[in-house]
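My main concern about presentation is that the manuscript never shows what a single data entry looks like. In essence, backbone conformation is discretised, so a fold becomes a row of integers matching the chain in length. An entry of this sort, consisting of the sequence and the corresponding backbone structure tokens, reads as follows:
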Amino acid sequence: MGSVILYGSQYGSARRYAEAFSRMTGFPAASFGAGADLSACERVIYFGGLYAGGVKGLRQTAAALPPDTAMVIVTVGLADVADPENIRSIRRSLRRQVPQRVWDRAILFHLRGGIDYSRLSLRHRAMMALLYRQVSRLPAEKQTAETRGILETYGKAVDFFDSGALLPILEAVR
């Protein structure tokens, strides 16, 4: 079958990137929960939204991969992916979700998505409010790039979608 694009997206950023990548490559794209048959896939390109330290649907997708299927993992989150500290944090979270056999062969990319507080579920709004209160109490010298990002975007609608950020992924899968 070649390559397939799967995505796990709660509010749409990972889906937008996956669909844009599908248009660039011609590879089919579907939600991870759509029941795609991975048995004949040579490679799965997974776009997953970052939520509370995890990547939506990644654990289930990685566990369902046949042994010889390669995986490209693309995280989509609010954190600034130009900051090495953020990348280390994202990769620590990824490592807990991906079996060793997949991790050893995976290619990783990280993209910025967005957030629109008016569209968040009540549960997610409450979680973000709690997180905001916690990080707003930190002295400036203890704030990380990630916590500063939370403080700067809290309560707003921000969109960091950049189709140009897909070009390195395109190069990697060619």
Summary: The longest strand covers residues 41-51.
